[in-house]
Amino acid sequence: MKLSNAPIASSTRKIHLVILLAALAMAATTVGCSRNSGGVSSSIATGSSLRADAPQAGTFTVEPAAATTKTSSAEKLPVPKLITYKSRDYGVSFVYPWQYSFLSARAVAQGDASLRPKSDGHDGQITLARIDIPKGFYADSDYESGYFALSLDQDLSQQECEASLVAPKDGKLGTDTINGAEFRWIETDSGGGGQAAKLRQYVTFSNSTCYEFEMGVKTRNENGLAREVNPDKVLRRLDGILRTVQILPEEVPTAAEAESSTEDSEPASHN
């Protein structure tokens, strides 16, 4: 008996068809993947400028924040303590750092003569206060003293007050305005034998009083081995005190107060 080849041929065709379909499917998948791969590459290339480390507007907001932090911390720094000297009797005041030394009128009058400012040539001169910069500010140097002195003289007229300052041949003479008051000033230098002094004197006339201010720097360097201090730098410290000087105008009673005072002073009449 002879077997038929029809079923075998039919099966073979089916197998070939399946293989062909599978091959077509694989080819289609490969083409699709190739296209998708090209799209992703293009997308990355386009967005590469948006990296996290690229300069951005928001990046610069950090600097102002840092500056604000520094400013706020600086504002919290302790403010140097200042002391105010005020004479109610003579209407004058000034401010000085608490580290400086203060000498009252009595201490200056009863102390060594070197503590007193230069005389104005009249007996009515009174020294109210003296401020000294301690030697510790200029340790291991030729610094001897640096001081600010307030004096006054009520016996002088305005002309006599201004004439009390006579500049020597090599001295300086000038005018200055400090907190509304007109000052006349001179500056002189002297020295010899390892010692030197630089003085600056100011006068102003107000409230029928001659107000006198003296700033001085004295140095001593006899063997020439000590470090030299610049007197101008010391004077700048003392000038800072001078810039705070306030002279209050003399209070003049109003017409109503004067009339009231006159009425009170009249004796009562008795019938």
Please characterize this protein's 3D structure.
The structure is a single chain. The chain is of the alpha+beta class. The chain starts with 5 loop residues before the first helix and ends in a 6-residue tail after the last helix. The strands form 2 sheets. A 7-stranded antiparallel β-sheet has the order 3-4-5-9-8-7-6. It contains 6 helices and 10 strands. A hairpin with a 2-residue loop joins strand 8 and strand 9 (209-220). It has helices spanning 6-47, 62-75, 105-110, 158-163, 231-242, 255-265; strands spanning 82-87, 92-97, 101-104, 125-132, 143-153, 172-178, 181-192, 195-206, 209-220, 246-247. The model is unreliable at 30-69 and 261-271 (pLDDT under 50). The chain has a domain at 82-247: Jelly Rolls (Sandwich). The chain is 34% helix and 30% strand.
In short:
By secondary structure, this protein is an alpha+beta fold. The protein has 6 helices and 10 strands, in the order H-H-E-E-E-H-E-E-H-E-E-E-E-H-E-H. It has helices at residues 6-47, 62-75, 105-110, 158-163, 231-242, 255-265, and strands at residues 82-87, 92-97, 101-104, 125-132, 143-153, 172-178, 181-192, 195-206, 209-220, 246-247.
